[in-house]
Amino acid sequence: MSHEIWFESRGTKLFAVDSGQGRPIVLLHGGLANHQSCRVFAAPLAPRFRIITPDLRGSGRSVHAGPLDWDLLAGDVVALVDHLGLDSVVLGGISFGAGVAVRTALRHPRVVSALVVLHPAFGGTELGLTQAQSAAMQAMDAAGSRVVAEGIEVFYPLFDTLPAELRERARATVAAHDPASIATTTRFMCTGGHPFAAGVELAAISVPTLVVPGVDATHPAEVADVYRRHISRCTVRAVDPAGFAAAITDLVDRELAPTRP
Question: How many folded domains does the chain comprise?
């Protein structure tokens, strides 16, 4: 059974969903998504783990129209962990959420017992963004700059190339966002900032890490290579979303001591 959580971070009320029992796993969604997108692939984890899925600041029900940066987002993760009275969690994220997870592991290692990086988009300032990534972020920001005045429908054309089921899900997810929050999020993403500068910085991450490489032009495989080269306890596995839960379970079973009853 799941229940809603409201917690405070730097004067803002943020939202999350908490369910299950066992070792806590916090999963962070991608850009223009919300906590529900993580719930889809995390469902098989529910029988064994406590699954916590926040709406990142500026997404879903976590309304935020002010400045946004990686440290603010990472601080929100720490605020959530502390609010729940936890010492540390398995922290994972997909796409944009993976960037937040990595920033958290770098800035606040005390709260991270293991790291899960799914379809990472950010390989550091040193690597930069591909043309496809820059174009996608510019398209999102172009829509984001119009959304407050013209309505959420300005985003719908961005999803036209998706299969029908995914297209409708994406539209419904975006429609539930606060327009000013979307404008803030897309503006931040369009800056092209990365959660770290150079790959060598990742050597500071000492916890067991799972990386699942991306499979499209906006999540290029070479990004995963940056993590593989620099994180000492890094495992790279190429699995589709249906295999995310099994890969996460394997990481926990292999690398972390069993939790006490």
Answer: 1
Question: CATH number, domain at 18?
Answer: 3.40.50.1820
Q: What is the pLDDT of residues 28-84, one digit of tens each?
A: 999 999 999 999 999 999 999 999 999 999 999 999 999 999 999 999 999 999 999
Its domain, for residue 45, covers 2-128+193-255
How far is CA 150 from its chain centroid? 28
Alpha helices in 22-175 (DSSP H): 35-42, 70-83, 96-107, 131-150, 164-175
pTM tops 0.90: yes
Q: Does 143 reside within a domain?
A: no
Q: Which pairs count as long-range contacts for 195-198, CB under 8 Å and 24+ apart, including other chains?
A: 195/70, 195/99, 195/100, 195/102, 195/103, 195/106, 195/122, 196/102, 196/103, 196/106, 196/122, 196/124, 196/125, 197/124, 197/125, 197/126, 198/124, 198/125, 198/126
Question: Does some domain include residue 174?
Answer: no
HSE-up (13 A, CA, CB side) for residue 231: 26
Confidence category of residue 261, pLDDT binned at 50, 70, 90: low
- Nearest CA to 175 out of 50, 1, 59 is that of 59
Contacts of 197 (CB under 8 A, 6+ apart): 124, 125, 126
**Residue pLDDT, tens place only, 155-179:** 999 999 888 988 999 999 999 999 9
Bridge-based pairing of strands 112-118 and 234-236 is: unpaired
The verdict on residue 63 lying in a domain is: yes
Is residue 261, in this structure, part of any structural domain at all? no
